[in-house]
Structure formats: structure tokens, C-alpha cells
Write a structure and sequence with these properties.
The protein is an alpha/beta fold.
């Protein structure tokens, strides 16, 4: 699994999130973005995005700054980490149409579980007795 991670730079929750993603069973690569300018470069290039994106918005303003990328985000599986559970914040988050929402004060074990399940679904099932893929 290839993951693009946008996280709050130098925060405890950002470090916990990165550790959770690094613990994924089938992580092939992790691209770590620390600022909005770097993230914009990824979204503005015509190159394909990684199949999985995890975005951690440290504020409601940062969440709003992600809205221009909504159509690019619809092309991939993406998880959104919110700064709070305020109704306005959650409503803004749903406009981006993430596949999963978590909050900064969580331990991110649910994010890890969701990404592991995603990888399990996208990996072809193997016939254990013969070692062949269907």
C-alpha cells in the first residue's frame, strides 16, 4: 500500500498518526507532507495520486483549505482526521466525502484497522493449498 500523509507538523497527534500508518501490515511507501504548499503540489500535478491518502486537519481553516482538492480526493480512498467533533467541522468534513473520519484525540487504532482492511480487500486472495491466485 502506498500512502500520502498530510499531518500537523511537530505535534504529538501527528507523530502518533505517522506511527500508526508505519505499523500497517503491507505498507510499501509513505510520503509525508508537513505543509499545505507541498500538499497542493501533489494535487496539482497530473500524475496519479497514491491509492490511499490520510489528511489530518489541525484546524477548521486547514480543513476548509482542502476543499479545492475535493475532486482529486474522490479518485482515491482517503481518511480524514478532524481537529474536533463540532457540528460545523463535521459538516465541512463530509463535503469532502472521505471514506473514514477520525479525530485528533483518538489513538488512531481505528485508522490503522481501516487501512489494513482496505489493503486486504485490494490484495488478490490466494489459494493456500496451491499458492495460486484466482
Amino acid at each position: 500500500m502506498n500512502v500520502l500523509l498530510f499531518r500537523s507538523n511537530q505535534t504529538e497527534s501527528g507523530e502518533r498518526l505517522k506511527r500508526s500508518i508505519k505499523a500497517l501490515d503491507n505498507l510499501e511507501s509513505l510520503t509525508d507532507c508537513w505543509n499545505m504548499q507541498e500538499l497542493r503540489r501533489y494535487f496539482q500535478t497530473p500524475d496519479p495520486l497514491p491509492e490511499t491518502i490520510v489528511l489530518q486537519a489541525k484546524s477548521r481553516q486547514e480543513l476548509q483549505a482542502l476543499s479545492p482538492f475535493r475532486f482529486r480526493l474522490e479518485q482515491v480512498f482517503f481518511v480524514l482526521i478532524l481537529p474536533d467533533a463540532d457540528a460545523e467541522t463535521v459538516a465541512s468534513a463530509h463535503q469532502l466525502r472521505p471514506r473514514f473520519i477520525a479525530y485528533q484525540d483518538s489513538d488512531f487504532s481505528e485508522v490503522e484497522a481501516v487501512l489494513n482492511r482496505l489493503e486486504a480487500r485490494s490484495t488478490p486472495a490466494r489459494d493456500i493449498s496451491s499458492g495460486l491466485t484466482p
